[in-house]
TrEMBL record:
<feature type="domain" description="HTH tetR-type">
    <location>
        <begin position="8"/>
        <end position="68"/>
    </location>
</feature>
<protein>
    <submittedName>
        <fullName>TetR/AcrR family transcriptional regulator</fullName>
    </submittedName>
</protein>
<dbReference type="Pfam" id="PF00440">
    <property type="entry name" value="TetR_N"/>
</dbReference>
<keyword id="KW-0238">DNA-binding</keyword>
<dbReference type="InterPro" id="IPR004111">
    <property type="entry name" value="Repressor_TetR_C"/>
</dbReference>
<dbReference type="InterPro" id="IPR036271">
    <property type="entry name" value="Tet_transcr_reg_TetR-rel_C_sf"/>
</dbReference>
<dbReference type="InterPro" id="IPR009057">
    <property type="entry name" value="Homeodomain-like_sf"/>
</dbReference>
<keyword id="KW-0804">Transcription</keyword>
<feature type="DNA-binding region" description="H-T-H motif">
    <location>
        <begin position="31"/>
        <end position="50"/>
    </location>
</feature>
<dbReference type="InterPro" id="IPR050109">
    <property type="entry name" value="HTH-type_TetR-like_transc_reg"/>
</dbReference>
<dbReference type="InterPro" id="IPR001647">
    <property type="entry name" value="HTH_TetR"/>
</dbReference>
<dbReference type="InterPro" id="IPR003012">
    <property type="entry name" value="Tet_transcr_reg_TetR"/>
</dbReference>
<dbReference type="Pfam" id="PF02909">
    <property type="entry name" value="TetR_C_1"/>
</dbReference>
<keyword id="KW-0805">Transcription regulation</keyword>
<keyword id="KW-0678">Repressor</keyword>
């Protein structure tokens, strides 16, 4: 919706419009002139609210980092709560790839993940983990989420495969397990695979030593 006067603008409205441009078209599409056109106002009005482009990018990074800090665990068991954190983090990374890339380009990736790490630290402590085991728990869950998202994106961006999995697994590549071949020939259910992997990881990390 166009905003015709500076008085009708707010800093948050400018940031929301800028974030929308980045989400749809990537950071390179964010110019002050294009943002002004999006808002239906003058470039000088945007400068008045957020400063120049570098200040605008800094504000977008802060906004993205704050959004990642809004993750709230849900569930009755440690496994359920950590799974809820992992799913929320995955969803945010998938929903805002250009904004996440912007944060990474500005050298603030570790800061971006700090709020999620802090949530996982609290869950690790609540589950009785301390010290190196708690640190391993936090990083393992984080790496599992980020790695899964990267694989998903690579699969989505890849050109059409010829032959694809369906054709490849028609061949005798599964030994005496035709059900396995049929399963591998089907499209990947990435959500189900993600949940399965995180649950297995969390159970392993929470298991007492020696079991």
């Amino acid at each position: 919706m166009a905003i015709g006067a500076r008085s009708a603008l707010s800093r948050e409205a400018v940031l929301e419009a800028a974030a929308g441009l980045v989400r749809r078209h990537g950071p390179d599409a964010l110019t002050m002139r294009r943002l002004a056109a999006e808002l239906g106002t003058a470039v000088t009005s945007i400068y008045w609210h957020v400063g120049g482009r570098e200040a605008l990018l800094d504000a977008l990074v802060e906004r993205t980092v704050a959004g990642l800090g809004e993750i709230r665990p849900a569930g009755r068991t440690p496994e359920q709560r950590v799974l809820s954190v992992a799913r929320a983090l995955r969803r945010q990374l998938r929903d805002h790839p250009h904004l996440v890339a912007l944060v990474h380009e500005r050298g603030l990736t570790e800061r971006m993940f700090l709020p999620a790490q802090q949530v996982l630290v609290r869950e690790a402590h609540a589950a009785g983990l301390r010290g190196a085991r708690a640190a391993e728990f936090v990083r393992a869950v984080q790496f599992q989420v980020v790695g899964h998202v990267l694989v998903e994106r690579n699969r989505e961006r890849a050109p059409a495969q010829h032959p694809g999995e369906q054709e490849l697994w028609r061949a005798d590549g599964a030994g005496s397990d035709p059900a396995l071949a049929r399963a591998l020939a089907r499209p990947v259910d990435t959500e189900r695979l993600f949940v399965t992997a995180v649950r297995a990881l969390v159970r392993s990390l929470l298991a007492p030593h020696g079991t």
